[in-house]
Design brief:
Distance between the termini of chain B: 22 Å
Largest sheet of chain B: none
Order of helices and strands of chain A: HHHHHHHHHHHHH
Strand content of chain A: under 5%
Helix content of chain A: over 70%
Helix content of chain B: over 70%
Strand content of chain B: under 5%
Shape of chain B: globular
Number of strands of chain A: 0
Radius of gyration of chain A: 25 Å
Oligomer: heterodimer
Number of helices of chain B: 13
Structural class of chain B: mainly alpha
Number of strands of chain B: 0
């Protein structure tokens, strides 16, 4: 392009600019993400589910613990009807209200546990990728953690610490913190491995070498050059981490070792209602369907993000 | 060219060397795992004598604690437990297996259950282990037998109807939790169609054809639930691994030399594509044992998982410790097996 010297054409250039499509990295990611049909479906379903459990209890104001037996002795194990949109359980409690309330807790556990595991996994991954001396011990530690039987260990830890945390922090908050921490601490290993791999490859790139050669200090290299470039694997594993955490919490509750019975998470609802499967199959179908839809849509979104964040796919 | 290299356990043979080296690495892993499990249970709050009757006086309670060795410092307790676990228990197992006596076996303390009054924990585990291994093993075999061919065909016929349907089903398969598929299967096949029994009967002994068929029928649903979940993950992975290999130069060379497509796919592409799949199979082992705990709960299979859940509810610490360690042991051993297969499939691994 010829160098423009006169101010008139510089003004012309400024006038041209707004008509050109302005592109940013995240704009590109969004464009590529939008091409992924299943991921779009996933976003829609997930947004509906999240809105439902957040706003649902405000609109649908039936108490999830209220037993309709008090009003009508026949109101147990009802199939879906106009009066009870999703039916009632063996104690005459409204299934929709319980599922809406349970979804809040399941989703909250998923998101918070994901933050725990991502923080820890990123820390371990970055440290072992960046500092050569830490690499071997940290990776041996990660391998050891991967060889641990996670579900048995989760069950054991929750059994052992449940009562003491309950007495300190109260039944709901105590169990919530315990479940979230334990799921997070036993789930960071895949993130650490992925992040380490990315850090190792980015560390060898020319721009890092350039930063070192102009005398940039290590913390600045880490924060300004390496971390922004490992963001995409972190985002993908955060997305999939939410799904994994929801799944783990449901499994714990399904085994009767998660939240107490007055806190109906989706997994807990499956656990409580699995013995009534012959009388009223709806009781297990609803929470199971909500868990599956959540996991499925998050996995679709994760797949879409993985493709969208991969710069090799840039067209 | 033979498909597998010759196997001898001599130090000069690279495969033998690789095997020995790999087997030795599991020792520190197992010790570290045993430490984690012991520490978690030992440092946890809670008193094992709390389940005893309230009428027992405090000084007697103290004596009971002392007799159980609870007053000792942590390293001593860990050392004693290690001796019990890694010396006494294996010796007792050998004695039982060959019906012989080694030394003074009466005075060797074995790890006993608190819940069932002094029954050795290992005996309880050995009773339950076959059920778990049967279901888990069969599920894994079913998963591999379904997943690998599906993945291969999906990759060769990429974007065909078969591929798209298969990809969609496998995405669903690995997103629906096992505890929900299990309940759905009970609903469909036990309650509605009455094809399979709802509850797994552990007392069933296989004596004739009829009882064998019954065993297969009652295993069908637990195995299907576990296998479907695992197959979904494996099929996705096999497909993408095949797709990575199909455009490679060596594939073009083989085709150019005039080999039939079937031969190129099986002998060249598949063998290379299976290498990462074997890693995934190894990484999936903890997941399938976790899945087994859940499946056993759904179908009331009387296996290790059910034993663990029962022990947790009874606060039976020795039993919980041992079952958790057995799970870890199984995971480590199966990982080792996968690694050995990996080494056989990929010479680059075993020579490095």
């Amino acid at each position: 392009m010829a160098i423009r010297t006169d101010t008139a054409s510089a003004e012309n250039l400024a006038a041209e600019l707004p008509q050109r499509q302005h592109r940013t990295m995240w704009g590109d990611v969004w464009l590529r993400f939008r091409r992924h049909t299943l991921a779009k479906v996933g976003v829609v379903v997930l947004v509906l589910l999240v809105l439902g459990v957040l706003a649902g209890p405000l609109v649908y104001t039936v108490d999830p613990e209220y037993s309709f037996i008090v009003d009508d002795i026949d109101s147990i194990n009802q199939a879906p009807s106009l009066e009870y949109p999703l039916g009632t359980d063996d104690l005459g409690r409204d299934t929709l209200a319980r599922n809406l309330f349970g979804g809040r807790i399941s989703l909250a556990v998923g998101v918070v546990a994901m933050f725990v595991s991502i923080t820890f996994g990123t820390l371990v991954g970055v440290l072992s990728g960046f500092f050569r001396r830490l690499d071997n011990p940290l990776m041996r530690f990660t391998d050891l953690m991967l060889a641990l039987p996670s579900l048995p260990l989760l069950l054991v830890i929750i059994m052992l610490f449940r009562d003491s945390l309950k007495s300190v922090l109260g039944p709901e908050l105590g169990i919530f913190l315990l479940v979230v921490l334990v799921i997070g601490i036993l789930g960071w290993m895949p993130t650490a491995r992925v992040v380490r791999g990315s850090v190792l490859s980015i560390k060898e790139k020319e721009f890092v070498e350039a930063a070192v050669s102009v005398g940039t200090r290590e913390p600045a290299i880490l924060w300004q050059h390496i971390l922004p470039n490992v963001l995409s694997p972190i985002i993908v594993s955060a997305t999939l981490g939410v799904a994994a955490a929801i799944l783990t919490e449901s499994a714990l509750s399904f085994l009767g070792l998660g939240f107490p019975s007055n806190v109906p998470t989706w997994g807990r609802l499956l656990f409580e209602n699995k013995d009534f499967i012959t009388q009223n199959p709806w009781l297990v179908i609803w929470p199971g369907m909500f868990i599956s839809l959540t996991i499925l849509s998050i996995n679709f979104i994760g797949d879409g993000l993985r493709d969208a964040l991969d710069p090799r796919q840039r067209r | 060219m033979p498909l597998l290299p010759a196997f001898t356990l001599s130090p000069n043979n690279p495969v033998g060397q690789y095997l020995v080296r790999r087997v030795l690495t599991i020792v520190p892993t197992l010790i570290a795992i045993s430490f984690v499990i012991f520490a978690v249970l030992d440092l946890a709050p809670g008193d094992p004598t709390s389940a005893l009757p309230e009428t027992i006086r405090p000084e007697i309670r103290q004596q009971i604690r002392k007799a159980m060795g609870l007053d000792e410092p942590f390293p001593v307790k860990y050392g004693l437990w290690m001796r019990q676990f890694f010396v006494n228990e294996p010796l007792a197992l050998i004695e039982k297996a060959f019906d012989i006596q080694i030394g003074d076996s009466e005075s060797r303390l074995r790890v006993t259950s608190w819940g069932s009054r002094g029954v050795p924990v290992m005996d309880m585990i050995l009773e339950r282990l076959p059920q778990t291994l049967w279901v888990v093993g069969l599920a894994y075999v079913v998963a591999i037998v379904i997943a690998v061919p599906v993945g291969v065909v999906s990759a060769i016929r990429q974007y065909s109807v078969f591929d798209q349907v298969g990809t969609f089903i496998s995405l669903i398969g690995y997103s629906i939790p096992t505890f929900f598929t299990g309940l759905l299967m009970i609903l469909l096949f036990s309650v509605k169609l009455k094809w399979f029994p709802m509850i797994y009967d552990t007392n069933l002994s296989i004596a004739d054809w009829d009882s064998f068929v019954q065993q297969l029928r009652q295993s069908a649903m637990p195995v299907a639930v576990l296998g479907f979940f695992q197959a979904a993950t494996l099929a996705r992975f096999t497909r993408s691994s095949m797709l990575d290999n199909i455009p490679m130069d060596y594939v073009r060379t083989a085709t150019a030399k005039g080999f039939r497509e079937r031969y190129v796919v099986i002998r060249h592409i598949l063998r290379n594509s299976l290498i990462p799949v074997v890693t995934l199979i190894a990484l999936g082992i903890p997941a399938i044992f976790s899945g087994a705990i859940i499946t056993e709960q759904i179908f009331r299979v009387n296996g290790l998982g059910a034993l663990l859940i029962g022990a947790i509810q009874l606060n039976d610490i020795p039993l919980v410790q041992t079952v958790t360690f057995i799970f870890a042991f199984l995971i480590v051993v199966f990982n080792l097996l996968a690694d050995v297969v990996y080494g056989i499939l990929d010479p680059r691994i075993r020579y490095s």
